[in-house]
TrEMBL record:
Pfam families: Flavodoxin_1 (PF00258), ODP (PF19583). This is Metallo-beta-lactamase domain protein. Transmembrane segments: none annotated. It comes from the Bacteria. In the N-terminal section; belongs to the zinc metallo-hydrolase group 3 family. PROSITE patterns: FLAVODOXIN_LIKE (PS50902). One of its GO terms (molecular function) is FMN binding.
Amino acid sequence: MEYSTIKIQDNLYYIGVNDRHTHMFENMWPLEKGVSYNSFLMTGEKNIIIDSVHAERFEVYISKIRSVIGDNGIIDYLIINHMEPDHSSSINLLLQAYPNMKLIGNSKTEEFIQAFYKIDTKDIFIKVEDGEKLKLGEHEFTFYKTPMVHWPESMVTYYEKTKTLFSQDAFGGFGTLDGGIFDDEVNWREHEYETRRYFTNIVGKFSQQIQGALKKLSALQIDVICPVHGLIWRKEPQKIISLYDSLSKYETREGVVIAYGSMYGNTEKMADILANTLSKNGIKDVLVYDVSKTHISHILANIWIYKGLLLGSCSYNNSLYPVMEHAYRVLEINKLKNHTLGIFGTYGWSGGGVKTLVNLPKSNPAYDFIEEVVDVKCSPSYEDFQKCIALADEMTKRIRA
Ligand SMILES: [Fe+2]
Ligand SMILES: [Fe+2]
């Protein structure tokens, strides 16, 4: 099958693939709108691939490569910015297709290549250091390490001639590239949410390192950004840089996410009273989620940007409701800053829901925690509802302070 190739610049082609069939990214984060694995091919005296794709899409991938360099063309180099298997599981297959291909990465990249794919790298690996320049044919690249954005070996590749940054996971997003691949070919509003969800689910926990990487890269003039997921930025690269900057600084806006787990609807009643009170207080963005129905991946994307968070749970056999436990664990991993947290819930006999949720602000003291939790036996009474109203009033006051 022949593929019409998309030219990004002279000598630079998009050879990425869409994945619409994988249900969960990292087998954990739902992909309702799919994901793209972006890969780039630079042609010239030497043919160079920058980042590859998931091996499951190899058939499409190799067709795209061949449609640029022909069936008899060869790939001389593969620059590996990131070793997570969504970008590296094709390495062995590429080596089978192009046995003389050399691999380029840093020392940690080499360790992962050996450990994941049992490849003997002795004669085929070119190690680069932070800030090192490397000439491949007529093309010169500079490499910058960006550790933990997303993995320890993560680095970015800069092509100075056209001020193009190959940024691997940084500046990426969920969602397939449906037709248009460039920022100026699509409506950003359709992509903003899936980009935020990718950020908050996948790389947000490394926000501090992202801030470090942004600082490091700020010295470069960047006209084009080629991430390994989501849109290619050629018109307004500053837009995606600003979004990543804002999210990794934990900038929040006025609004409250209420996420609850409820078996018989009693904790849900409390969530509704909280939401009504917040609304009466003039808070316009009040987002209520039942954690049994909405995957935490979506809830987290909104928790991240709204200053207020109210977590509610029933108890389950003397501990936290298992569905809420998943949400709790995800929040525990993501050490959110700049958030006000309130807690409510119900219990049958010896509690467990609220009793466990109050450990969250202990694990992350950055929370502005409202100490007055509302813990209710079985179902809320009039007095309990008054306590919920007081909790919502306190939340309103704090997020507006
Ligand atoms: Fe990754
Ligand atoms: Fe990735």
